[in-house]
Amino acid sequence: MQNQDFIVLQRLRDWRAQGLKAVLVTVTRTWGSSPRPVGSIMAMCESGAVVGSVSGGCIEDDLIREFTQPANPDQINSLPAMAIEGPPKRMKYGITADEAHRFGLPCGGTLELLLEFNPDAGRLSELVTSLESGQLMQRHTDIATGEVTLTPTDTVSSLKINDSTLTNTFGPAYRMLLIGAGQLGEYIATMAIFSGFTVTICDPREEYASGWTTTNVNKMTEWPDDAVRLFKPDRRTCVLALTHDPKLDDLALLEALETEAFYIGAIGSRANNAARRKRMIEHFDQTEASLSRLKGPIGLYIGSKTPAEIAVSAMAEVLAVKNGVELPQTMAVAQAKAQQESTN
Q: Which of 36, 8, 35 is nearest to 23 (CA)?
């Protein structure tokens, strides 16, 4: 699965390249609880096709009715769909309790949207091409005219809006590099794919690589440390070592620690992970400070026993770190098990 924002922009680009009218909808502000965060986008085509989401579904239905469905000639009081043209338009949902209930918003939730009509096909193509090449981009929309400018950026930032300009940052898909093509890797890869990651599996061992069945993954057979260098992890990349084999895991993790990868971790027991850190300090000139980003045992403590449950635990931690959630140390596997043992 690709990054959802990328899918929306790609589909919108295709509609506009075909000469179809279309609307780009962006969540610009929320008050109280809301189903989707600020910066979420969706696109609607004049045909009624929709991609992306700005709520749980009810607001999307209302927007489709308002902007893409023509009047019903059989109904005397049927009004024509609003024109998909003109400068950007602000809309607000959930101002009253009745509206919140009607549109499926949580109690007290309010959502503000900006609708851009018929975004320029050339600018959309330029944006999609930049994202495909791995470039983080900022899209600036003049709210008075709808004119769009694009600028590359190295900084991931939240949506910004004022009376004149909307600035939204779009990035390439998050990437995951898995070291080890075992059963656990297959479970983690599956979960990562439906979470929007592009997944690459690396395993030089033919007996493991040949048995890989998960589809839509990239495969590497280089030695893992070489694979990490070739992969060039950035701040939208996570690296997970899953083989339990120091010859494969250790050097790959050391290479990953030299990059900006947002998550670096290894599977294994507490004893195995302690032994790994000791090896790295004694033989590879590492320090506790240089190893501070290395997570292990990976995952959140959920009492997991099976490979599928361990994958859920690991993926939950990856997503928490990706989303900037500060989790209490007591949720980490090592700390939770140690606390559990101390109370028994």
A: 8
